[in-house]
Design brief:
This protein has 392 residues and is of the alpha/beta class. It folds into two domains: 129 residues, Aspartate Aminotransferase, domain 1 (Alpha-Beta Complex), CATH 3.90.1150.10; 240 residues, Aspartate Aminotransferase, domain 2 (3-Layer(aba) Sandwich). 38% of the residues lie in helices and 13% in strands. The protein has twelve helices and twelve strands. The strands form three sheets. It has a seven-stranded mixed β-sheet, with helices on both faces. A three-stranded antiparallel β-sheet has the order 9-10-12. Helix 4 links the parallel strand 3 and strand 4. The chain starts with a strand and ends in a 14-residue tail after the last helix. The relative contact order is 0.16. The C terminus is likely disordered. It binds pyridoxal-5'-phosphate. The site of pyridoxal-5'-phosphate (PLP) has 14 residues, from helix 3. Its EC number is 2.8.1.7. Its cofactor is pyridoxal 5'-phosphate. Belongs to the class-V pyridoxal-phosphate-dependent aminotransferase family. NifS/IscS subfamily.
Length: 392
């Protein structure tokens, strides 16, 4: 199978697995215990904090390990909105922001202001500037890179505007960390969310960056782990794995080793747009994650394309993985003003450090075959409900 769904999750890097295994076998000790064997485990956790911090140019003590990216986002919102007020965010956030803030609105009367994006999928920065000037604004939260389109948001500008208005700033950087430079010494975020499984660590581990001097009260209280900022006995093996993954990705970013991924993405799009009619690449072409291609195929329903592609050995996604199976245009595409028809005919293809040129070319051939087949049976643009034809 050719895996081109790396925004959904990534394969655990073999070197990551190797460093994790001892903590699932011999070194099972509770890192909070007093004996020497436990200190080895505690040291490994400290190293992981250093490695994750180095990836984003932070200090180890600014990293709070969590159970996933969703928890990181929820924990920041839970703390920052505890006193009520307005939260300013964007229309294109992940559900780990949007659904949690909806719950805050229902339960605690928090007000939510969602700023729109332009046709390229980038935050309307003037609207954002106006929104954060609201006196009741208690937090601004804007994602670094969108999970569906890969479009990178003007985080530096947004963080500065929020601070000028006296508002703390959070970024869900889950689709950015490990894939592109994220440097908190340059970009003045107060909080930032990270998820390990998006950069070759296992699933079920994440982190929050909390800038030194910024107050942060925990969502989980108990044994006082993570400096009292996230209680719960640590998922040691996964945290150690995320540390190693951070080290690997930092080395690759420092060596510009992500350049081949850009070439694959661009080659994929160039071949499709020249060899097929009715293909549109969505989102900003200049402010985009190196690995993500969001493409619409006129006259084809994505649900049908996905099933055919799976049959032809290619795994990718329609919009966000969470939306797969639903016949609704995603909120991201709606916010960008993409028509419902075009939205429903969009695929998200996301490459990783393991993707190869051969896979890319084989995927192009598979997409061409699937599009040709669907267009022949669905009859071009404006077709009705999706039907999937799996016969020869
Ligand atoms: C932008 C974004 N935020 C949050 C999440 C949730 O992260 P996790 O799966 O680690 O809970 C994801 C995962 O798809 C994401 O893409």
């Amino acid at each position: 199978m050719i895996y081109l769904d790396s925004n959904a999750t990534t394969q655990v890097h073999p070197d990551v697995l190797e460093v994790m295994l001892p903590f699932l076998t011999d070194q099972w000790y509770n890192p909070s215990s007093g004996y020497r064997a436990a200190k080895v485990v505690r040291k490994a956790l400290e190293t992981a904090h250093e490695q994750v911090a180095a990836l984003i140019h932070a200090k180890p003590e600014e990293i709070v390990m969590t159970g996933c990216g969703t928890e990181s986002n929820n924990a920041v919102l839970s703390f920052a909105m505890a006193g009520g007020g307005t939260m300013v965010t964007s229309e294109i956030e992940h559900s780990a922001i949007l659904r949690y803030s909806d719950a805050l609105c229902e339960k605690y009367g928090v007000k939510l202001e969602k700023v729109g994006v332009d046709a390229e999928g980038r935050l309307l920065i003037d609207d954002f500037a106006a929104a954060v000037k609201n006196d009741a604004c208690a937090l601004a939260s804007v994602m670094w890179a969108n999970n569906e389109t890969g479009v990178i948001q003007p985080i530096q500008e947004a963080a500065i505007l929020a601070h000028e208005a006296g508002v703390p700033f959070h970024s869900d950087a889950i689709q950015a960390v490990g894939k592109m430079p994220v440097d908190v010494s340059q970009v003045p975020v107060d909080f930032l969310s990270i998820s390990g499984h998006k950069f070759h660590a296992p699933k079920g581990v994440g982190a929050i960056y909390v800038r030194e001097g910024v107050r942060f009260d925990p969502m989980l209280r108990g044994g006082g782990q993570e400096g009292g900022r996230r209680s719960g006995t640590e998922n040691v093996a996964s945290i150690v794995g995320m540390g190693k993954a951070a080290e690997i990705m930092k080395a690759k970013l420092d060596a510009d080793a992500h350049a081949p991924i850009v070439q694959l993405r661009d080659h994929f799009e160039k071949r499709l747009t020249t060899e097929l009619d009715g293909v549109t690449v969505n989102g900003s072409l200049t402010h985009r994650s190196v690995n993500t291609s969001h493409v619409s195929f006129q006259g084809c329903e994505a649900a049908g394309l996905l099933i055919l592609l799976d049959e032809y050995g290619v795994q990718c996604s329609a919009g966000s993985a969470c939306m797969t199976g639903k016949q609704q245009p995603s909120h991201v595409q709606t916010a960008m003003g993409i028509s419902a028809q075009q939205a429903k005919s969009s695929l998200r293809v996301s490459f990783s450090i393991f993707s190869t040129q051969e896979e890319c070319d084989a995927a192009v051939e598979a997409v061409k075959k699937a599009v040709g087949k669907l267009r022949s049976v669905q009859g071009g643009p404006g077709v009705g409900p999706v039907q999937v034809y799996t016969g020869s």
